[in-house]
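Researcher: Going back to the complex we discussed earlier. I've cleaned up the inputs and rechecked each line, so this should be the final set. Can you rerun the prediction on the complete assembly and write out the structure?
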Amino acid sequence: MGRTSNARERLLQTATRLIQARSYADVSVDELCADAGVNKGSFYYFFPAKRALALAAIEAQWQQARATLLEPAFAPDLPPLARFPRFFDLVAAAHAARAEQTGAVLGCAFGNLALELSTRDEAIRGQLQAVFANYCAYFEAALREAVADGALAPLDVAQTAQAVLALLEGALLLAKTANDAGVVSRLGGQVLHLIGATGANVPVARDEQSM
Amino acid sequence: MGRTSNARERLLQTATRLIQARSYADVSVDELCADAGVNKGSFYYFFPAKRALALAAIEAQWQQARATLLEPAFAPDLPPLARFPRFFDLVAAAHAARAEQTGAVLGCAFGNLALELSTRDEAIRGQLQAVFANYCAYFEAALREAVADGALAPLDVAQTAQAVLALLEGALLLAKTANDAGVVSRLGGQVLHLIGATGANVPVARDEQSM
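Model: Rerun complete. Updated structure for the full complex:
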C-alpha cells in the first residue's frame, strides 16, 4: 500500500476514482481510508473533512485534464479550428478507455459534482466554476486565433467558448446516461457548426477519430 | 395536508421538489413522508421503495416538461427553426422563475439524476434515457420539417437533435454551476448555429427572449 508519506496522494487518487464512479454522498471517509490504506488519524491530519479532500481532488483532476486533454488538444501544431474536434476526440478516447476498465461511462468528474452539489456547497460550486472558466480560456484563445487568421468571422468569443463547454458537458452527460462513450465523439463532430465555422474554412484533421 | 386519497400525488410533488433541490441520496423516505404529510405505511402502500417513487416522479416531471415546454415551444405557429430558440427561452424562463422562489438554479431534474445515478441504477438510467429520447423526437420532427421546407439543407437529423439536447443539458449544468439561469437563454442563442442554420434562412421570432 506504499508509505505513509504518500498517504495524501493515495487519498486523492482514491477520492477521484470512487467519487467519479459513484457520487460524493455515496463515498464515506471510512471507505476512502480503507481503500487508500490510510488510517483515520492520517486522513484528518491532511484533510479536516471529506469536503476538503473533494476540493483537493478537484484541483488534482483539473491539473490532469489540463495536462492530458487541453494542452495536447490546443497545441499549435494544428490550425485553431481543427483543435476543437481534436479536443472532443481526446475526451471521448479518455472516457472510452475508462469505461473499458470500469464497465461504465463515468461522466465528467466536474460535471458530476456540479450537479450533485452546486445547490448545497458554495466552496465546491465556486471551485468547479473556476475549473470551467479555465476550460473556456483554452477555447477562447483558439477562437481569437481563428478570428485573427481570418478562418472565422468576428464573433462573441466568450459566449461561443461557453457554448462549446456546454456541448461538451451535455455530451458527457448523455454519454453517461446512454452508457456509451461514443456519444462524445459523435457529438464532437458538431462542434464546428456550433462555432459557426462553415465546412469551407475548416481544415480536416481528425486523425484521432478512430481511437 | 389534504386527504389520504391524494397521498400519492403529494409524495410525487414532494419528491420532485426536494430531490431536484438537493439530490436523490440526500432525501430520505422519512423526510419525504414528513414533508408530504403522509405516514410511512401509506408511503410503502404506494411505493415499495424510494427508488419506485423516483421512477414515478421522473414520469410525472416528463409529463410536465412535455406539456409546459415542448408542446408550446414546438407548436406549428412558428416556422420549425424558430421553435428551437423559443424552446430554450421557455426553459430559461422556467428555471429563472424557480430560482426566484428557491434562491438557487436547480438544474435539469433529469440531468441531475442522470449524473447522480446512471452508474448505479439501471432502471433509473433507462427511464432517463427514454425521457431524453422523447425530447429528441420533438427536435427531430422540427428538423425534418425545416429540411422539407427548404429552410435547412439535408442533414443527419438524429445526430443534430442529440447535439441540441447536449447543448440544452450542458447549458443547464453551467447555469446551475454559475447559479445564473441567464446562462440558458444566452446559450440558447447559439442553438441555430449548432443546427447549421445560417442567419439568412431563420425567421427571427424571439418574443420570449426578454422573459
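Model: Worth noting: Chain A touches chain B through 48 residues (CB under 8 Å).
Researcher: Good, that matches what I expected from the previous run.
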